[in-house]
């Protein structure tokens, strides 16, 4: 059994951050009920990369395994009745509605905690539940931009560079996952439920703990350079460099070893501290020109012989094929009833006694409505009546 076997999670979230957090709880054994509109959650209709799938697009498929789908209209009286009954026996409730929406639907913490005082209520927002930016759209790129992270990348005078991933969504998901687990531990000790608030702005800001402390405590300004340094607060050379047939990444080398490896004696004459900080662009350019003369494999072998930290720059094809990835079991593979064979990243934490488990792939809309309502105490006649009123969706759409 998984660590969270026996716990029930009501996932009322959409898009990436909330569903990803709920999926992590499901990976650890929780029964995650995805509460979605009868027409299906938003992510079902917004595929990343345009990969629509057969009946489930890849975006939704990747973020909603180990869940059961309950299709319900929370704006109807029947839908509200269902939610009240489910909340009474739930352990965790997750939502990432815009500010004010949870209250209008009757699923705010104040309402649900009366029904179930032991409930762990995870509220995820873009900027916080209140305050001057509370109504702003909480979208990944916008938060990357506001957090200051983008101003540490790219060349001086050129547009800042965003991360190539949905970075803020992923970090926020893990923050919510961590918060839910901590609150569950507190409840195990005290019996108390509580509200857990997570917002994207704080999640991406606190991720930059070291960089922001250099700025706030050390007073060192965040200054980009003319060369493409990979970090504003690390000495040169630090970044990616072109070889004759690809790219390598190079991190904080000693100059004497670098000079020998790259057959560039002038590097050994530079003072690491002075040149690495005060002459960052010139140092970076010297290393860039030296590396450009070598093929990737040869260059990495030379650097490795000197004990210098360097490595290849992979694309996804190389990453998936890497032997360490295979050794770690980083990806899981399974057959989905509508989408066929699926290979996707798994759960990254290994437990010696209670490993994570794949129990089911992402559900079709309303696939488990009858099962969930039956287990909650609704009779077959009541379920049929709810379907007649349009309060629920009962089958795959």
UniProtKB/TrEMBL annotation:
Its EC number is 2.8.3.19. The keyword Transferase applies. Keywords: Plasmid, Transferase. Coiled coil: none annotated. The keyword Mitochondrion does not apply. It is an enzyme of class 2 (transferase). GO terms for molecular function: CoA-transferase activity. This is Acetyl-CoA:oxalate CoA-transferase.
């Amino acid at each position: 059994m998984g660590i969270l076997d026996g716990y029930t999670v009501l996932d009322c979230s959409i898009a990436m951050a909330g569903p990803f957090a709920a999926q992590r709880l499901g990976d650890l054994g929780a029964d995650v009920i995805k509460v979605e509109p009868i027409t299906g959650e938003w992510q079902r209709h917004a595929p990343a990369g345009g990969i629509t799938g057969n009946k489930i697009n890849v975006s939704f498929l990747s973020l909603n395994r180990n869940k059961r789908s309950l299709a319900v209209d929370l704006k109807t009286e029947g839908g509200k009745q269902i939610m009240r009954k489910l909340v009474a026996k739930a352990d965790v409730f997750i939502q990432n509605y815009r500010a004010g929406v949870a209250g209008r639907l009757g699923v705010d913490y104040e309402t649900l905690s009366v029904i179930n005082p032991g409930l762990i209520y995870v509220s995820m927002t873009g900027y916080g539940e209140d305050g001057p930016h509370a109504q702003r759209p909480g979208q990944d790129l916008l938060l990357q931009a506001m957090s200051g992270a983008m101003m540490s990348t790219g060349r001086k005078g050129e547009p800042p560079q965003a991360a190539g991933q949905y970075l803020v969504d992923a970090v926020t998901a893990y923050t919510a996952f961590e918060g839910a687990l901590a609150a569950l531990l507190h409840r195990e000790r005290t019996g108390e439920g509580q509200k857990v608030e997570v917002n994207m702005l704080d999640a991406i800001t606190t991720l930059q703990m070291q960089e922001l402390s250099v700025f706030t405590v050390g007073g060192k300004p965040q200054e980009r350079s003319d060369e493409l340094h990979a970090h504003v607060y690390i000495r040169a050379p630090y970044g990616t460099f072109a070889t004759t047939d690809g790219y390598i990444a190079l991190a904080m080398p000693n100059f004497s070893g670098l000079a020998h490896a790259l057959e560039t004696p002038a590097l050994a004459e530079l003072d690491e501290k002075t040149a690495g900080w005060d002459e960052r662009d010139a140092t970076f350019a010297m290393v860039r020109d030296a590396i450009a003369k070598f093929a990737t494999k040869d260059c990495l072998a030379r650097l490795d012989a000197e004990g210098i930290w360097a490595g290849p720059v992979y694309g996804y094809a190389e990453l998936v094929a890497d032997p360490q990835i295979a050794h770690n079991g980083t990806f899981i593979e399974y057959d989905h009833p509508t989408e066929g064979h699926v290979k996707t990243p798994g759960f990254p934490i290994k437990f010696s006694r209670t490993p994570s488990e794949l129990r089911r792939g992402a559900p079709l809309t309303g696939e488990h409505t009858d099962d969930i309502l039956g287990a909650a105490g609704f009779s077959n006649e009541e379920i049929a009546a709810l379907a007649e009123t349009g309060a629920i969706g009962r089958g795959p759409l």
